[in-house]
Amino acid sequence: MNSTSVIATIGMLAIAVVGIGRHRPANGPLGEWTVGERKFSTFTTWFLQAGESFTTFSFLGLAGLAFGGGVAASYALCYLAINFVLQYFTAPRMRQLGAEHGYLTQADFFAERYRSPLLGRVVAIVGAVFLLPYLQLQITGLGLIVQLATGSRTGGNLSMILATVLTVLTVGFVLWSGIRGVARVAYLKDALMVVGLLVLFIGVAISVKGGIGGLFETVRDTHPDLLTLHQKGYDATFFVSAVIISGIGGGLGTMAHLWPPVLAARSGRALRSNAIWLPLYQIALGIPVIVGFAGILMVSPDSPGNAVALTLAGQTLPGWLVGVVAVAAASAAMVPSAAIIVGISSLLSRNVLSARSERTQLRTNHVCAVVAAALALCLGLSRPDLLANLLLLTFGGLSQLAPAIVMGLARKVRLDAIPVLLGILTGVAVLTWLTFGDVDLGTMDPGLVALLPNLAVTGVAQLVVRSRTSREEPGGVRGKRVGVA
User: Fold this and answer.
1) 3-class state of residue 235 by DSSP
2) How far is CA 118 from CA 233, 276, 304, 425, in A?
3) What distance separates the 2 farthest-apart alpha carbons in the chain?
4) Which of 5, 100, 425, 449 to pair with 237, CA 20 to 30 A apart?
């Protein structure tokens, strides 16, 4: 067992130990696990939001995207800026409604605002299904990290299984300590991520001929197309559509696992402050992009994009520092993995299966957590893909919830449940057809295309519902919502 393996193993176990922290009663309410006492400070909320937003994609996926698509990888910096601008306005309102009506999940918002338990169940299913690719992204990343730590380059499937074991271990500490455990690990994770990125950056800068400046001069001379948005598969259409769909997805609260940090915040002021200062993390995101460009010169063109960052770590750093980078990368996967699995299990146990007692909800939650991890592993083994593509699939699917979220945040909801339901189902159906039906859209994001029929069906259905309501109740009050039992 080499120094890399030792340090990586100790570091990953330490992350789980930190998450366990103090014991919490096993029969406590689900709400305590999910949102604590809704009194988290600005400091704690900061790390929770950052810990669940900056993930394996930030560490591995961006480097892989720069390796294959050049400057197109900078789309992540653009969409995150849009995310934080939108969250400045939306997150405080979500927190306010959550405190007033006792939301624990995103689906609670839909069920209450549109007075439709059925809509809440459908949204919970959509949220759980489209979070699975995002969980697969984290597990795939962990598998690559396990390969680096063990020195194995052939046991891909075994590495994926070991990564799932690490994910389940992470879920164990979350189910033990709840959102407070996630917060504790988020502090450690962010520190590790920054240290790991800096170590990798220094190693690459020292190893590349001419340093970082020489790196880009060489790329300009040998691969000039990578410095433009004319690269095949990563043109301007890809860039713009990916920025829009990802900005909508993150900024409008379409991802269910991002709701607990918002609902747990002490005040809307804390969330607005975070929206102002969280963009500082984007400075760190420039490092994996640079690493990806270095891979163009230092790694075989046939190498998988996902593995570029870790391959360069192995080539440019001593073994013990490679272990540090591996722990940092693992933390960037383990913390979001736990949040995603708990987000999926909470949606299913609370909004789909609707267990009556708190004890039954928690037991159901535990089962759903294990099932979610197993399904993500099956996806990883049967349908491996670029990490960036998995992220875009999640954003595309969950962005079909965006129109209804925007309307639901208004003081008076002027949209009825039936049109919302039809619009979401239409958008999801179109996205599924575009994604798995081999429909050629060029480089346009299918999630963005699916939003158009979603909006059209929602609008037409709303006109029909209002027209029918007006005929049946000529003297009725406008704005009355039609619920779906």
Assistant:
1) strand
2) 40, 36, 43, 13
3) 79
4) 425
| CA nearest to 151, candidates 313, 299, 282, 292 | 313
- 477 secondary structure, DSSP code: P
From residue 275, alpha-carbon distances to 79, 80, 92, 185, 300 in Å are: 13, 10, 10, 21, 40
| pLDDT tens digits for range 441-459 | 888 989 999 999 999 999 9
**At 44, which amino acid appears?**
T
What is d(CA 145, CA 117) in angstroms, rounded to the nearest whole number?
41
456, amino acid identity: A
Model confidence pLDDT, tens digit, residues 9-48: 788 778 777 777 655 544 456 677 677 778 888 888 888 8
Task: Tell me how far apart the alpha carbons of residues 190 and 184 are, in angstroms, rounded to a whole number.
Answer: 11
The token duo for 103 is 């939301």
Rg of the chain, C-alpha, whole Å: 22
Q: Are 361 and 30 in contact (CB under 8 A)?
A: yes
Structure letter (DSSP) for residue 265: B
Residue type, 285: L
User: Backbone phi, then psi, for 230, in 5-degree steps?
Assistant: -115, 10
Cβ atoms of 28 and 172 within 8 Å: the answer is no
Nearest to 442 by CA among 239, 223, 306: 239
pTM of the full predicted structure? Answer: 0.85
Alpha-carbon distances, residue 216 vs 70, 97, 179, 210, 344 (angstroms): 11, 49, 43, 9, 42
Angle at the Cα of 33 (from 192 to 403), degrees rounded to 5?
85
Structure-model confidence comparison of residues 389 and 2, the more confident one: 2
* Burial zone of 209 (CB within 10 Å; 0-12 exposed, 13-18 middle, 19+ buried): exposed
CA distance 41 to 114: 30
Scanning the structure block, which residue is given the tokens 């575009």? 434
Contact 251, 395 (CB under 8 A): no
Q: What does the buried/exposed string (b/e) look like for 109-120 if buried means 16 or more CB atoms within 10 Å of the residue's CB? A: bbbbbbbbbbbb
Q: What token pair was written down for 402?
A: 């965006």
Q: How far is CA 346 from the centre of its chain?
A: 16
Contact 386, 64 (CB under 8 A): yes
Find the distance separating the first CA and the last CA of the chain, reported in whole Å.
59
Length of the chain: 485
3-class secondary structure, 411: coil
**Cross-strand pairs, 40:** 265
Token reading at 373: 């991890």
pLDDT > 80? residue 166 = no
- 234, β-bridge pairs: 231
Asked if 107 and 256 touch (Cβ cutoff 8 Å), the reply is yes
